[in-house]
Structures
1.
Amino acid sequence: MQKGSFSLTIPFRIFYLLFLGFGFLCFSQIAGAQAECPVQLSQQRVVVRYGGSVAVNCSTSVSHKGMGWEASEGAVAMTRDSLITWRVSNLTEWEIKPYCYINHKEQCQVELPVIIYKTPDNVSISIVKHRRTMIAGRQYQLQCDVQNVAPVHNLTVKWYKGQTLLNQTTFTEDSKTPVNVNPSVLIRPDRDDDGAQYRCEAELDLGAEGPQYPPNKTSDFLSITVYSKPIINETKLPSKVPVFREYSEEIVCEAEGNPKPTISWILGTNDIVYNEVLTISESTPEYVSCVANNSVGTTTRNFTVFIQDISISTVNHTEPMTAGKQYDLQCSIKYVAPFKIVDVGWYKWNKNNIIETIKTPDILTYTVQICPDKADNGSQFWCEAKLEAEGTQRTSTMKSANLSITVHFKPIINETKLPSVVPVFRGYSKEIVCEAEGNPKPTISWILGTNDIVYNEVLTISESTPENVSCVAENSAGKTTRQVKVFIQDISISTVNHTEPMIAGKQYDLQCSIKYVAPFKIVDVGWYKQNKNNITETIKTPDILTYTVQIRPDRADNGSQFWCEAKLEAEGTQRTSTMKSANLSITVHFKPIINENKLPSVVPVFRGYSEEIVCEAEGNPKPTISWILGTNDIVYNEVLTISESTPEYVSCVAENSVGTTTRKVNMVLKEDYLPLIAGLIAVIVAFISVIFIFIYSIYYKTAKMGHYSLKDAKPSAQNGDIAQNGKHSPIPMKKFSQSDILA
């Protein structure tokens, strides 16, 4: 064989030739089909929502005698164009079959498959011929009602329990128009399905041409209730229940079921206790039954009660134990019949088997060695014996009472609360605490010198405290000493080259001086103003001891408190400390600001009247107030009395050591017409009063000046009538003459 050549077997050559021939045939058929009808559709298949819009282009690259769209909706008449569009804005024809045709050498056409879909009007789930209460283990049928959906062969109904997919139903009907379907599924609920929620979901799978997310509609949840026969918890109620002699014990019969079961205990023929809890003792019958009952059924659990006696103690030791020493514990089992001992275990708190399990069924006394530490002070120890009934695999465990031990141990000083290096600020005192754990409780003392001892947990240190002090914690188990080094720190804040009050808007330097931090190093310096942290970014410069920051105070900063803090870290450790300077209070002087609300720029003044105006100004130092009425006319007062003789323009001047502020005021003279109006009203009132008096006097003379007598009066025409309250009196009057009046 030549290099780079290869040979093929005869069968493989035959297969290869057949493959090429088949491929050529397929290609020829496709090419022939395209040659038969030389049109191209912009979409090979369309999926449209019922009532939706659709548009598909049909184009050709050959010359032709005419092309068009044939359809029951949106047809396009034959045209000589090379691109035509079938377009429908509201597609409602379910059976529509549009096709594009062309007259080339002969007429040919290409059909456009159209799928019109409609989501269901409603989807609901129900139980067939049954209420919602079910019995565990029985079979039930769920039905999903899907109304008015199309096309049904693209429909999938999914069944869910909660969020879990249970089943899927598909359809083979080839109906393009909307239909109603009612698929169903069988379920067999168990007790865990009580309260389960079922639902069904109708989903249209319309392929790649359909919507990105398949259209779907979901039913409401169907919540079911499952009734089940009681199941007694055998873990909490074993078949053999031990009880210690001379002790009582509570056993619990817990049963799960729906409806909730009632619990009863059968102690004898007529001895029944209705309760979940039963108190047993050595007088309880040997055979007892728990009965759990509900409307579905009854479950019974039989068990045997037997008496045990087991104890734990120390061997040849009654005093408190000392941490680190070794002691023996003994477990005595006095009665286990009719069981045999197959396992003995030792326990401390919740730690199982402090030593390996001992299997020695031929003796009734077991020992174990322990070496307690300080964590074991107050610990509870006990032993348990696993028992097995003769000839059976039924087991039981008997447990001793707890043995509580007391462990004495040497004091341990809390080094976290009492570091080996303690800083204190110069001029300040500080309390340090020496806390020690030990049993018995240790006594605490501080050694400040040869004969200087302080008996207290708390020691107050200051710059006068010796550099080296010791905390001593001591009890009957031993003594522990903690050496502490005291060093003095000093930090201060001040202004740089400035001692006078500051001027608002000007820039000043603040300086933080840290005079002694050894053996600590500075890892962080921060600047603070009142309650605002870090008025500048934190400075991390451990190689210098003086730090500065620039400030530009405004009038709101007058009286503000500034301070600096240095975060320190002990060499070679993670212990940190923070030292804080005393507060620096600054005084800010600022130019006067005149209150324009109380002194408007235009002030009216009435002719013949005077008025007071006030010029108030805020500033530091407090400004002096003056009024400029003319070239040489100046009034030094906050209050100015103005009248019609005051110049038209006056100025208020507020001045302090920082600057001067001027407020110009325009006096507007106004006439006062109030006296003229009051006089006119008085004349009108007087005139009306005169007219009234005149009219009243005429009336009085006419109606009141005549004199009459009722004596011997008789009705006659000669007698006159007198008016009474505007009415004619029926009583005749006799008029007196002048002589009668004089008589």
2.
Amino acid sequence: MAAVPVPAGTRPAPTRSGRLFSSPLQDHSVAALVQINQCLPSNLLQFRESFKPPVPVAPPPLSSSSRLCHLRKSQLVESSNSSQHRSSLCHLRHLRSTLSSRVRPIFVRLVFSNYFMASNAREDTQSNSVAPNDNEVEVQSNANPTSETPQATDNVSTPEGSTPNEGDNKTHVKSAYWEYFDRLKVEGEWKAKCKFCKTVLSANPRNGTKSLRNHVDRYCKRIKVANSRQSSIVESLSKQSQKQKLSEDGFVFDPSFTRKCVAEMIILHEYPMSCVDHHGLRRAFASMQPTFKMPSRNTIRKDILKMYGDEKQKLTLQLDENDSRVAITTDMWTSNQEKGYMVVTAHFIDTSWKLHMRILSFCYVPCPHTSEVLTETLMKILLEWNIDRKLSTITLDNCSTNDAMIDGLLGRLDSSFLMLGGKLLHMRCCAHILNLIVKDGLSIVKESIEKIRSSVLYWTATQKRTETFVSWCAKTAISFTRKLVLDCPTRWNSTYLMLETALLYKAVFPRLRQKEPQYKTVPSNEEWELAKEICDRLKLFYDVTQLFSGSKFPTANLYFTLVCKIKVSLDEWEISTNPLIANMASNMKKKFEKYWDEIHGIMGVAAVLDPRYKMVGVEFQFEKMYPDPTECSKQVDRIHQLCNELVNEYTQKMSSDVSHVSVGVGTKELNESGNASSFGGDDYMVYLKRRKMTRSSYVNVELDHYLEEEIHPPNDPNFNVLKWWKNNQMKFKVLAKIAKDIYAIPVSTVASESAFSTSGRVISPHRAKLKQDIIEALMCGQSWLWAPLGSKGLNLDLQTFNDDEDVESDQE
């Protein structure tokens, strides 16, 4: 007889002991049940069908052996009284003797233990109990209420006259609703007291448990709150287990996925590839999954290169599908192996108006590093990524080699695909220009701050001197919050930080002179005052550099106002009464005029496209920069003319795109309508669309309409320029297209230079033999894999292999 499949989600009925008969079936349960089903005779069907189905829900269709497990115990006892059923039981005993020794215990567990336990249950229910006392008797339960409302039969209750054992609330109580109540007897009548709201209900065994069920399901709010809390906990744990695939039935171990995770771990956190050969790591993985075979170093290298290829293909597709231009930053770096590497970073804004930064290449450049070699290398990268026709600008440091490289690129790139024919291609790094300006100014006051530098050097030379300095800070009632730092001659911002920190402990240095005879370079009060003035001036440049170095937010709209602020400040410092400050400002102004005598045109357009400034803000800043009205008007007209040229260029490009799309679609529609021949066919329709998009009035209307609108409040702390243009892109289609391309332009090469910090750890002295392909895969792969994680709030600076520190917990 064929076995009937058991429906999914069906559970056998529990026994008196609360265990399922199928619980001991572990190793050979399936094979045993199949053999039992095949051996059951036909007359066993009469034995099975003579039982009535359980009330009120009929049992699901099961196989013959499983059906015996679900029969009501009372029905089994009643049926066994008949001779027909006794003969069937004898036949079952005979069938047990014919089964194999492996299947026989399972058969006995399923059939005969069910029969005898049912007989014992009938005997227990027919026995008489001791008469209860007249006094109130309360029975406490040790069981906790369940989180879900039980599905129990209401007409099953405790027999009249039975006395439960003390401390057991479940004695002779079959309804699961009793889990919420304590049974007690008041004046000879059984009562049920709610454990949550202390309500006392009648609990006569003859009336069933309907009143208890109504109280739990409808009236008691405290039970509902407790059940909802417990259900939410169970639901959250269930979701978490499903998410992590830790369910006993749903988890499937995939070795290939684990290998991919190991490769991703090495890329993200800069682990050495040799870590897969370490005994500790192999033992840790074996303890979690003994069947997993840890890949070797060569295998994990292949996995990293494969992951690099897959991610590169995804990024290439993303750049191809994105309709905005791409801005490039590039720089050169020399490793500890004395090898030169070029890093190329792409910046673009996607269709959701989110700014992205990705490292496209980290390649080895052989010597000599001439402009021709650099041009050839960069051009190869642009063609490989298919962005040579989508460039907006290239941001570079200020050196003659980079200037020559730009000239070489302009000769090889198609100027028709560049903004204004390539006039705006070269963008100088603002952070580098600020560095040159400040260094020229500090060269004038270098000797005036020499004693402060010597003092910092003296008290940071040894650990003992540092401890002495800290102890004297406490004696002077000055909290030691920042360590003394010595500046680096090639980094002006380190000089600013040195002066800023030393000024905090100005009162400590004279007292140390009394204790330490060898300390003789104590700055005078005049030198401290000069250092404070210099520090106040440098703070402006330090703050501007921090803003220019951002890569997670647009910096193009900040360029114009900050550069104008520096120009105005230098003019004010130049007339200072302090001759040293005046000379410093004069030197800085010369360097400023060398690079920023004329504001970069595209940065002026970026200021106009900022709804907080527009043309009014540009005029306001130019009036402060150029006191001469003629010169001021000239600069304003130059920016306004540049805006008009960009709008005209983008309008023509958008109209040409419309015409290319319209040719194929419009031809079919016109041919089907039959009206094209009388008006000149397809060419006439294309001409009408092009004329509508390129008319000059359209350009003037959109640009003038934008400029005539009220400016956005300049002091709005929650303003986001990308979000504003996202919400208004349908209103100003051409201007939104220009804004998307311009606001992706970085004003510094810090994004590329930050990759050198990572490369210094990847190409460490202990990993000096890595080949070029794996170095590029590690550098680029980290940038690509961290991009989606960074949007979730994870910090790459705290996730590297070399960074480690103790974290003291507040609770031990």
